[in-house]
Amino acid sequence: MSSAAPSKVVPPCTREELNSFPSQLVKDEGPGAPQVTRFELPEGAVILKEWTPSGHFLLRWWAGQIMRREMQHYALLDGTPGIPRFRGAFDRNAFLIQWVDAQPLKRRLGKPLMETALDNLERVLAGLHQRRFAHLDLHQRLNTLVGADGEVWLIDLGQGLNCQRGPIRRLLFPLLARIDRRALDKFRARYVPHTIPEARRDRLVKRYGERKTDHFKHFHRWVRRLLSDDAD
Questions:
Q1: pLDDT of 81 strictly over 80
Q2: pLDDT value at position 33?
């Protein structure tokens, strides 16, 4: 493993050996975003996440920063309930995590499963915040995965922040944790408002109940495309 890897966790195989196992492309949005591939290893399925854009130097810098942070955070939180296990890094641009049999949070889950999932999300967030880690990207519901029994997994940790050290981070942590809890409030207001205490229900439903255009997300995608090789 490269000396640049952020953890002593050794991958279960080499990168060359990985390519010999059955695989399925899970996500590929072009050079402006990471590529995600599932591999079937004898000891269990894993996800390979890699991002090596060849476009503008700003995109290459950004990709390197996000991937480095995400690997560090998976290694830091390895074993935390609700976080897929970290399976090691090949280099600065590619790492493995545990595959979890789950689907993104969505209305079609149905109310009973949604209620269970959001209760579990609340517990996962409590455990994450006990470690003084804020995810900060839960407004994107694709980062919350739900299993058949309502088990919840959080992914895409590159935007998160470890607040265990540093006076400024420790000072800001309560505010950052509130951002995560606000995402949970949004999901409850949008999908199962009856689970919100009556004293807060009307206010939260009014604020989050209707789907709104996420202009920041669209702007972020536009910037990534602009800086990639495929941009006109």
A1: yes
A2: 86
Strand, coil or helix: what is 92?
coil
C-beta of residue 6 within 8 angstroms of C-beta of residue 89: yes
Q: How many residues does the chain have?
A: 232
Residue type, 58: L
Q: How far apart are the first and last CA of the chain?
A: 37
What count of other Cβ atoms lies within 10 Å of the Cβ of residue 213?
Answer: 7
The token pair that represents 46 in the structure block:
């894993």
Q: Band the pLDDT of 211: cuts 50, 70, 90.
A: low
Architecture of domain 103-217: Orthogonal Bundle (1.10)
Cα–Cα distance, 110 to 52 (Å, whole number): 38
Cβ-in-10-Å burial (0-12, 13-18, 19+) of 43 comes to exposed
Helix (H) or strand (E) holding 222: helix 215-227
What pLDDT digit, counting tens, does each position of 89-124 carry? 999 999 999 999 999 999 999 999 999 999 999 999
Where do the structural domains in the chain lie, given as residue ranges? 15-98, 103-217
Report the CATH architecture of 15-98: 2-Layer Sandwich (3.30)
- Count CA within 13 A, CB hemisphere, residue 176: 21
Q: Report the predicted TM-score, pTM, of the whole model to 2 decimal places.
A: 0.85
Compute the average pLDDT of residues 185-208.
93
